[in-house]
């Protein structure tokens, strides 16, 4: 192997990064609590439970992450050893705090819903006065997949909201955005400053978890250059290296940024088959200091998550134009176990294929009755 990349986290994102790294003669090693994790089949796991941080740091040439809540003190230990991590620590620190994230968007003229910091009950009352109702209250740190959130629709709910979220101490109150759809833009920046962007994904959720993504997002020709401009601003400002994701709301007033993820993203899994160079390969290329590949899409795709329960594998594979990716995880409600990318030879068959697959999957897909892609 020519190079070893150390990755914080050993979930499916690490697994798919390592799968993309192998053909480039790049080995991945992982720092992760669970030694039986999805990445374990692809490289050694250094257990974070057994205090293996030092040996993990010694085992690799350069570092990255697949877990955005990677503790900053662990990154600091690595930096003190004069090792490099991509993306940069600053990007990670900002992405771990919704308030810093929103402040950065504002500073870079990327539109966001009006927001305020909330540190006590009194602040919620004043946020209601200033922003009006409804507002979305979120914990500043640690929330994911819609957890650590409360939609406040009436003043009667203020006490309940504080009861549920107040332990987190630092919250953010945002105006409720009346969006028509949710999209995400994924981009990669190389060590030489080269930036490449994949097409926008339109994302659909079920019970707060990503159910499926349609790529390119339908009717998004006018949105693509704007989203591209926003994410490029972020990448350049942060002197970022690697893949960055920006989640956005589509509103009548234009795009509003919701949050960024300093890593490869579920809404980019389609790119393994659907793009010339996937988010995983380009991330590895960037971290290794190699030239980036083209992010152009080959054909329209739908990426569907397998959540909670496995489908019958033979039933899925009997459909023409499907690519199945399983993560070697055990079944549990709400858990992402794998994904399926639909890429029929004839793209006009995408909707039909999607509906056929929806009948096979044990968990309901957030498909609308009149869905056309
Ligand atoms: P987040 O954890 O910020 O990604 O939020 C999870 C989901 O909550 C998003 O995908 C949206 O569907 C919804 N959401 C978050 N923030 C807002 C907001 N300010 N207005 C309306 N919906 C929101």
Explain what the structure shows.
The chain has 373 residues and is of the alpha+beta class. The chain has 3 domains: 3-85, 3-Layer(aba) Sandwich (Rossmann fold), CATH 3.40.50.20; 114-175, 2-Layer Sandwich (Dna Ligase, domain 1); 181-360, D-amino Acid Aminotransferase, Chain A, domain 1 (2-Layer Sandwich), CATH 3.30.470.20. The protein contains 12 helices and 17 strands. It has helices at residues 12-21, 53-59, 72-80, 89-95, 98-107, 121-131, 158-165, 223-237, 271-274, 279-287, 313-317, 350-360; strands at residues 3-8, 26-32, 45-47, 62-65, 115-118, 135-139, 149-152, 171-175, 181-189, 195-197, 201-206, 209-215, 242-251, 254-261, 301-307, 322-326, 336-342. Strands 9, 10, 11, 12, 13, 14, 15, 16 and 17 form a 9-stranded antiparallel β-sheet that branches. The chain has a 4-stranded parallel β-sheet with strand order 3-2-1-4, sandwiched between helices. Strand 13 (242-251) and strand 14 (254-261) form a beta hairpin. Helix 1 crosses helix 10. The longest helix is centred in the middle third of the chain and has 15 residues, at 223-237. It is globular. The mean pLDDT is 95. The chain binds adenosine monophosphate.
């Amino acid at each position: 192997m020519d190079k070893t990349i150390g990755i914080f986290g050993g979930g499916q994102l690490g697994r798919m990064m390592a799968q993309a790294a192998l053909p480039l003669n790049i080995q991945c090693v992982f720092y992760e609590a669970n030694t039986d994790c999805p990445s374990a089949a692809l490289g050694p796991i250094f257990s974070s439970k057994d205090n293996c941080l030092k040996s993990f740091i010694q085992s690799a040439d350069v570092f990255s992450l697949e877990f955005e809540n990677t503790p900053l003190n662990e990154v600091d230990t690595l930096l003190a050893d004069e090792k490099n991590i991509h993306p940069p620590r600053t990007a990670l620190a900002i992405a771990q705090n919704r308030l810093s994230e929103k402040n950065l968007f504002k500073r870079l003229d990327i539109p966001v819903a009006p927001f305020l910091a909330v540190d006590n009950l009194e602040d919620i009352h004043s946020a209601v006065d200033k922003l009006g109702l409804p507002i979305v209250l979120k914990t500043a740190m640690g929330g994911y997949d819609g957890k650590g959130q409360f939609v406040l629709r009436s003043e009667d709910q203020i006490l309940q909201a504080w009861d549920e979220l107040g332990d987190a101490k630092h919250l953010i109150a945002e105006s409720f955005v009346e969006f028509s759809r949710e999209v995400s833009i994924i981009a990669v920046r190389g060590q030489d400053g080269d930036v490449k962007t994949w097409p926008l994904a339109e994302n659909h959720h079920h019970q707060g978890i990503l159910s499926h993504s349609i790529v390119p997002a339908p009717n998004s020709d006018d949105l693509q250059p704007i989203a591209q401009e926003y994410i490029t601003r972020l990448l350049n400002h942060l002197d970022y290296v690697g893949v960055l994701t920006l989640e956005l709301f589509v509103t009548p007033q234009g795009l509003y940024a919701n949050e960024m993820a300093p890593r490869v993203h579920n809404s980019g899994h389609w790119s393994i088959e659907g793009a010339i160079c996937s988010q995983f390969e380009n991330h590895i290329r960037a971290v290794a200091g190699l030239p980036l590949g083209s992010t152009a899409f080959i054909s329209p795709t739908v990426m569907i998550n397998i959540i909670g329960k496995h489908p019958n594998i033979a039933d899925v594979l009997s459909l023409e134009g499907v690519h199945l990716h399983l993560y070697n995880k055990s079944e549990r409600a709400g858990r992402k176990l794998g994904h399926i990318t639909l890429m029929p030879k004839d793209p006009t068959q995408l909707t039909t294929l999607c509906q056929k697959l929806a009948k096979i999957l044990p968990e309901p897909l957030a498909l609308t009755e009149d869905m056309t892609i």
